[in-house]
Amino acid sequence: SDDGVPAIEARHIRKQFGGLVALEDVCLSVREGEIMGLIGPNGAGKSTLFRILTGEMPATSGEVHFRGRNITGVGVREACAMGISKSYQIVQVYPELSLRENLLVPLLARQRGAFRFDVMASVKRDGELMKDADRLLAMMGLSDRLGGPVSDLSYGEKRRLEIGIALATQPDVLLLDEPLAGLSPEERVQVVGVIKAASIGRTTLVVEHDMDALFGLADRIAVLHMGRNLAVGPPAEIRENPIVHSAYMGG
Ligand code: ADP
Ligand code: MG
User: What b/e string do you get for 106-121 counting C-beta neighbours within 10 Å, with b at 16 or more?
Assistant: First the structure.
């Protein structure tokens, strides 16, 4: 919908870890269908903000709104069921299972009442679900590996599988935390293509240190610095922003 209601919104978020204030009065409003890039020096609070938006951890204060609804305090399962999903941590993938089998788990996660004892058996009888898994693997450029185990994948292939797993929950809001980290230039080009395809028809938030890649991808960029909002705007504007420059130079 394009009724002006943000897809996802952080309102005056504060996050304290003991004596450390990781986020202070942080606001972020992401439009429906938008790709929002999030940048900031290490320790700025980007990953913490993502964890709060996905329900992985609660904020100390402030609110999270999803499509106009206050969802502050909902856990990660409920947030995922509502349509907010972050790229999976690869350590949580089942290395001995095939790529296809790894995708069936999150594909089922959005299907109400799907958590049954005979879940894998029923999945194997469900041709539609298998087709969904294979379609996602094709989108990730992993069609040739779909029956093989995850343990056979290269690092770059695993990063693409992570995005596929996040997409398998059919999120309305997709969050990617440093999807290009550790990838070769060739793999970066490939994953940027994957992100472009993945972002079609959904709202996408991306934390990324590769400025060239992110600025070419995002509709707007938000800048965090020392746990606070520093700037938000279109890439061209952020690129020319002297405050952003001095924050990155440590000035
Ligand atoms: P970024 O992703 O921008 O590099 P983070 O959100 O990971 O930054 O971290 C922001 C600050 O919060 C850092 O100082 C970090 O050490 C601290 N921090 C993050 N997570 C925790 C945690 N679980 N416990 C304590 N401190 C944390
Ligand atoms: Mg981080």
Answer: bbbbbeeeeeeeeeee
Other Cβ atoms less than 10 A from the Cβ of 95: the count is 13
Q: Residue 242: CB partners within 8 Å, gap ≥ 6?
A: none
Dihedral in degrees, nearest 10, Cα atoms 187, 182, 140, 147? 110
pTM score of the predicted model: 0.91
Ligand 1 mutation target, pool 20, 24, 26, most atoms within 8 A of CB = 20
- CB-ligand 1 contact for 46 (6 Å cutoff): yes
Q: Please, what's the b/e burial string for 45-68 (b: 16 or more CB within 10 A of its CB; e: otherwise)? A: bbbbbbbbbbbeeebeebebbbbe
Complex confidence, ipTM: 0.99
pLDDT, one tens digit per residue, over 186-204 is 999 999 999 999 999 999 9
Q: What dihedral do alpha carbons 66, 176, 222, 7 form, nearest 10°?
A: -20
Per-residue pLDDT of 126-161, as tens digits, reads: 688 889 999 999 999 999 998 999 999 998 898 899
Report in angstroms the alpha-carbon separations of 98 from 60, 102, 105, 149. 40, 6, 11, 4
Distance CA 51, CA 177 (A): 10
Report yes or no: 103 and 192 within 8 Å, Cβ to Cβ. Answer: no
1 close to ligand 1 (CB < 6 Angstrom): no
